[in-house]
Design brief:
- By secondary structure, the protein is of the alpha+beta class.
- The chain folds into three domains: 90 residues, 2-Layer Sandwich (Dna Ligase, domain 1); 127 residues, D-amino Acid Aminotransferase, Chain A, domain 1, CATH 3.30.470; 149 residues, Rossmann fold.
- The strands form five sheets. Strands 8, 9, 10, 11, 12 and 13 form a six-stranded antiparallel sheet that branches. A four-stranded antiparallel sheet has the order 1-7-2-4, with helices on one face.
- The longest helix is centred in the middle third of the chain and has 20 residues.
- It is elongated and about 80 Å long.
- It catalyses: GTP + succinate + CoA = succinyl-CoA + GDP + phosphate; succinate + ATP + CoA = succinyl-CoA + ADP + phosphate; (S)-malate + ATP + CoA = (S)-malyl-CoA + ADP + phosphate.
- InterPro entries: ATP-grasp (IPR011761), ATP-grasp_succ-CoA_synth-type (IPR013650), ATP_grasp_subdomain_1 (IPR013815), SUCC_ACL_C (IPR005811), Succ_CoA_ligase-like_bsu (IPR005809), Succinyl-CoA_synth-like (IPR016102).
- This is Succinate--CoA ligase [ADP-forming] subunit beta.
Length: 399
C-alpha cells in the first residue's frame, strides 16, 4: 500500500524525522490558506499523486511550456495560480504512463534554501534478509540513472535485525554522504529515526529524495515516498485510513475485495490461474506462442464460485481481452469445484470470447466431465503448452 508525500512526511515527523512545515489542500482556496500558515517568503506547491517524476511531468490540459507538478511560489497569488493549474488536471510523468493521473490533492510546503542534495532509502534486501540503507551523494536525480551511469556513487549498508540500528551504521551513512561534524551527527540521527519508522510501520520501502542540507546547516527530508507491506496492514488500522483508492486501478481495487491478486497488463489474452509461479509461467508461454497476456491474476488456493465469477468479471471488464485462458492445478483446490465455478461464471457473465481451460490435479476427471457437459463452448486443454496454443488459435480464428 502506498501513501501520498504529505502523509508520508506527517508519519515520519511522528518518529522525529526533520521535515519542512506543510499542509495538504483539496481546493485552490485551501492551498492559499495553507501558504498563509507558513513563514515564507518561498513556498513549494506539489501535486499529490502516487507516481514519481512530478517535477518533470507535463499536464495534459496545459500548454507544453507550462511547468510540471512541483512549483515554486513567492506570493499567495502565485500559489493560487499554481493550484488552479494543477487541481483537476491530468499529470503525465515517467512513472504514470501516457494516461497520466488526475491531480486531486496538493501539498503546500515551506521553501528552503538548498546547499546540497542526497539520496537515502530503506528497503528489504532479499539477498541478505536484512533491512538495507541505500545512500548516495547524487540526490535529486533518478536513482536508476545514477545506478546505471555511476554505480560507484551508491552505497548499501545492511542492518542485522538481531542488533538493530547501531551507532556504527549512522557513521557509515554519514561517511557515504561525505558529511562531517554536526551534519554527520544529524545524518546518523535521521537514519536511526528512519529505521525506527521502517520497523514501526511494517514498511516495504522508505525513499528520501532529496535529503537536503540547507544553507543554515540543517539536514531535512524534502520529499518522501513510503510503501507498506499489505500483509501487515491488519496490525495498522491507522495506516489503512491513509489509503487513497482514487489512486488505484479500479480493476485491481475490485480484485482486492475478493482477495484476488490482479495486475492489468497491455495484452489481449486474459489469464486466470492459481499460484503466482504458475501464473507467471502461463503469461510466459502465451508470449512464446505469439500473443500477450492481458493480466496477471492469481485466484489463490481456495477459490469459491463467487471468487471465480468475480475473476471472470474483472478480466472481461478489460475491453482489450479477446480470449481467456484458465490454468488450474488442483491441490487444496479440487478441479470439480473449480469447473462448477467456471461454468456458473461463464453463464452469469454471458461469456462471448473464446475460453480455454486446462485442469490438473485432484478430481481432474470430474472437472473435465463438468466442463464437457456444460453446453458451453469451452475448449479443453491437456497441458499448459496445449492450452497456450489453443487459446492463441481460438483468438486468431475469432478475429
Amino acid at each position: 500500500m502506498n501513501i501520498h508525500e504529505y502523509q508520508a512526511k506527517e508519519l515520519l515527523a511522528k518518529f522525529g524525522v526533520p521535515v519542512p512545515a506543510g499542509f495538504a489542500a483539496l481546493s485552490v482556496e485551501e492551498a492559499v490558506e495553507a501558504s498563509k500558515k507558513l513563514p515564507g517568503p518561498l513556498y513549494v506547491v506539489k501535486a499529490q499523486i502516487h507516481a514519481g517524476g512530478r517535477g518533470k511531468g507535463k499536464f495534459v490540459e496545459l500548454p507544453a511550456e507550462a511547468k510540471g507538478g512541483v512549483r515554486l511560489a513567492k506570493t499567495e497569488e502565485e500559489v493560487r495560480h499554481a493550484a488552479t493549474e494543477m487541481l483537476g488536471n491530468t499529470l503525465v510523468t515517467i512513472q504514470t504512463g501516457e494516461a497520466g493521473k488526475q491531480v486531486n490533492r496538493l501539498y503546500v510546503t515551506d521553501g528552503v534554501d538548498i546547499a546540497k542534495e542526497f539520496y537515502l532509502a530503506l528497503l528489504v534486501n532479499r539477498a541478505t534478509s536484512r533491512i538495507s540503507m541505500v545512500v548516495s551523494t547524487e540526490g535529486g536525480m533518478d536513482i536508476e540513472t545514477v545506478a546505471h551511469d555511476t554505480p560507484e556513487k551508491i552505497h548499501s549498508i545492511d542492518i542485522d535485525p538481531a542488533t538493530g540500528f547501531q551507532p556504527h551504521h549512522g557513521r557509515a551513512v554519514a561517511a557515504a554522504l561525505g558529511l562531517t561534524g554536526d551534519l554527520a551527527k544529524q545524518a546518523a540521527s535521521t537514519a536511526s529515526k528512519l529505521y525506527d519508522a521502517f520497523l514501526g510501520t511494517d514498511a516495504e520501502q522508505i525513499e528520501i529524495n532529496p535529503l537536503a542540507v540547507t544553507e543554515d546547516g540543517k539536514l531535512m527530508v524534502l520529499d518522501a515516498k513510503v510503501g507498506f507491506d499489505g500483509n501487515a496492514m491488519f496490525r495498522h488500522k491507522d495506516l489503512m485510513e491513509l489509503r487513497d483508492e482514487t489512486e488505484e486501478d479500479p480493476a485491481e481495487l475490485e480484485a482486492s475485495k475478493y482477495d484476488l491478486a490482479y495486475i492489468k497488463l497491455d495484452g489481449d489474452i486474459g489469464c486466470m490461474v492459481n499460484g503466482a509461479g504458475l501464473a507467471m509461467a502461463t503469461m510466459d508461454i502465451i508470449k512464446l506462442n505469439g500473443m500477450f497476456p492481458a493480466n496477471f491474476l492469481d485466484v489463490g488456493g481456495g477459490a469459491s464460485k463467487e471468487k471465480v465469477t468475480a475473476a471472470f468479471k474483472i478480466i472481461l471488464a478489460d475491453p482489450n481481452v479477446k480470449g481467456i485462458l484458465v490454468n488450474i492445478f488442483g491441490g487444496i483446490m479440487k478441479c470439480d469445484i473449480i469447473a462448477e465455478g467456471i461454468v456458473a461464471a461463464a453463464k452469469e457473465v454471458n461469456l462471448s470470447v473464446p475460453l480455454v481451460v486446462r485442469l490438473e490435479g485432484t478430481n481432474v476427471e470430474k472437472g473435465k466431465e463438468i466442463l464437457a457437459n456444460s453446453g458451453l463452448a469451452i475448449v479443453p486443454a491437456n497441458d499448459l503448452g496445449d492450452a497456450a496454443q489453443k487459446i492463441v488459435a481460438e483468438v486468431k480464428k475469432a478475429a
